[in-house]
Amino acid sequence: MFSMPPSEMAWKNKVKMTLGNMTTVVVKYGYVHQNAPYPLDSTAESGYVYHGH
Hints:
By secondary structure, the chain is low in regular secondary structure. The protein has no helix or strand.
């Protein structure tokens, strides 16, 4: 395991992979109830924009 800088500790849709290391992505999908509140406010300001390829 690698330590993460504070700027990387947020909800993101990316995975950093380094040469020679194995990366495992574990995702839990659950049923979304139509009237249930969503635990993440996607309209809140994140503080910065990050984009990469």
